[in-house]
Amino acid sequence: MDPFDAGTGSLLRQPKAVWATAGASVVAFMGIGLVDPILPSIAQGLHATAGQVSLLFTSYFLITAVAMLLTGFVSSRIGGRRTLLLGLAFVVVFAGLAGTSGSVGQLVGYRAGWGLGNALFVSTALAVIVGAAAGGSAAAILLYESALGLGMACGPLLGAVLGNVSWRYPFFGTATLMAIGFLCITAFLKEQPKPARKTSVLDPLKALGHGGLASAAVSAFFYNYTFFTVLAFTPFVLDMTPYRSGAVFFAWGVLLAVFSVIVAPRMQTRFGSLKVLGGSLVLLAADVLVLGYGDHTTAVVCTVLSGAFIGVNNTVYTELALGVSDAPRPVASAGYNFVRWFAAAAAPYFAPRIEEWTDIHVPFVVAAVTAVLGALVVLVRRRALTLPHSRLHSSGGIPMAAEQEPRHAAEDGVGTFTN
C-alpha cells in the first residue's frame, strides 16, 4: 500500500488544532538531535569530557523512560490538552534554564527536566492528532510520522546554525519555539474527551505480560542501543565544526524521514514486516561496523546512510508496538517505550567509557552486536510477533486498530512515542 493513498486528499486540509499540535511535535522531536552538532562545543565551553557531555542524552532518556509509566496516568485524569500544555511548559522552562548552565552537572539536570516535559508532550500528541484530524487515523498517523521525521532532520540543523554562535543559543531557540507552540495549542486546540477508565501506573507493565509485546520491546531495546550510539557518540568521532556536523545529521534525518514515511510501508507490503525489520537490523549492524573502522569520509557516509535503516526500523517497531497485543494502544506503547528508552539512556553513557577502556573502534563493535541481537529476537520470536489476533493491517503496515478504532487513542487520552 502506498502510504500516501490513505487520506491524501485530506492530509493537508486539517483543522488548526491539528497543525498546531503537529508543529509543536516537530519542535519536540527537534530537541532529540539538537545537541548533536554542539556536543564538542559544549564539552569545550564547560571544560567537560565526552563521557560527561554524553550524560545529556542519558539523563534525558532515563527520565523519558520512567515518565512513560506516568503519561497515561496523568492524561487520563487531566485530559490530553492539559497534558500537552504541561509538557510544553516543562520544556520551555528547562530548555531555557539549560542555556544558562554554568556546569555540565547543571546542564544534565536541566535536560532531565526537559525529558519529563517531552515525554508528557509527545506521548499525548498522536492521540490528540488522531482525535482532531480530518481524513481518519491513517492520515493522522502519516502526519505524525512526517512531523517526527522533519523534527529529527531539522534538530541538528538548528543546533548547528545557533550553536555556531554559542552552544547556549540552541537551548534558548528551542524554548522560544516551544513557547510559540504552547500559545498555538492554547488558542486552537479544544479539550479532548477524557477516557471512561483511568489508566493505572502499573497498566503498561502488565501489558508487557503479552509475549509479542515483550518481544518487540526487547528487540527494540537492543536496536535503540545501536541507534543512540550513532546519535550520541558519532559526533565526537567525526570531530567536525557545528555547521559540518549539522549538515551530516541533517542529511541523516532526511533519509530517516523518507525511509520511515515512504519507503518502509512499501517494503513491508512486498516482503512482510518481520523480514524487513530483520534485514534492516542486519544492514544497520554492518553499516555501524564499517563506520567504526573506516576513514573519516567513510564514517561520514555511513553515518548518513544509517538514517535509512533507522527510518525503516522505527516504522516497523511502531506498528509492532501498536498492533501485536490486544492491550489498548496507549498502554501497550507506554510499556514498550518504558523498556526501550533505557537503552537510549545507556548507549550515550557506555559508548565513551568503552572507548576509554579499549579504543575508538570497540563502541561501534558493541553497537553492531546489539543490532544483530535485535534481529535474533525477531527471528526467534517471530511467531509471537505475528499472532493471529495482531491488529496490523496486512496490506500496508498501518495498524488496523488505528483505522478501525480512531476513538481508542482519543478516549484513552494518551498517544505514542514509539519512534
From TrEMBL:
Location in the cell: Cell membrane
Membrane topology: Multi-pass membrane protein
Pfam families registered for this protein in UniProt: MFS_1
Region Disordered: start-end pairs: 396-419
Keyword set includes Transmembrane: yes
Major localization class: membrane
Membrane-spanning parts: 17-35, 55-74, 86-108, 114-134, 141-163, 169-189, 210-233, 245-264, 276-294, 360-380
PANTHER family documented for this protein: MULTIDRUG EFFLUX PROTEIN YFMO
Name of the protein in its database record: MFS transporter
Native organism taxonomy: Bacteria, Bacillati, Actinomycetota, Actinomycetes, Kitasatosporales
